[in-house]
Automatic annotation (TrEMBL):
Alphabetized SUPFAM superfamilies for the sequence: vWA-like
One Pfam family named in its UniProt record: VWA
Lineage top rank: taxon: Bacteria
The protein's name: VWA domain-containing protein
Domain (VWFA) ranges: 16-189
InterPro entries: CLCR (IPR051266), VWF_A (IPR002035), vWFA_dom_sf (IPR036465)
Amino acid sequence: MQVNPNDFLPQRRPLPIIVLADVSTSMEGEKIDTLHTALAEMHQKFKDLHDTRSHLHTSIITFASNAQLLLPLTPVEDVHLPTLTASGTTSMGAAFKIALQLLEDEQQMPKRSYLPSIVLVSDGQPNDDWEEPLQNLLDSDRGGRAVRLAVGIGDDCDFDVLKTFVNHPEIPVVRATEVLKLMDFFRFVTMSVMARSTARNPNSSGNLPLHLLNDDDLEF
């Protein structure tokens, strides 16, 4: 019987990346198209990454009039990016609830997983009850210790909500005054995750590559 040397290598621990994506009506057109392109580019970079200490898994939770788990946590090499469609209102609180359920689901996220990176993208203001679901997320073990990153698109976004989500003095909320800056944000996210995946301790947020972003677009 032929022996496969890979069978004797230590199994890499999952490193989850969860994207909470606003797909309300205001995201229609260029915004939703740019978001899809940015996500596709991020996933391709992840698929090209080798020799890491961790095994990247990604998930997408979308929120509009309702929130849904559009992409369950999936190894990046198996991800087929679903199409994003904009419609409805901004049920951000419902997305926080699904994110917490995902973090607590050991079938989706085994105990041995590294701490997740959670990414929030929005261009508006939540129109459901979001405070308690967000606080529950932040109070949870994994949610509270996760690396949380956020971007607000345009001038109508509620940046106070995004700052409450990030809740870290050294991690800014990114302001995408122009839609194409969403691409820069996701390149920043990509490099942040890649740095974690190759670090000696992937549970550390490390030094975020803030140099990839314009200082004028950062809100602490």
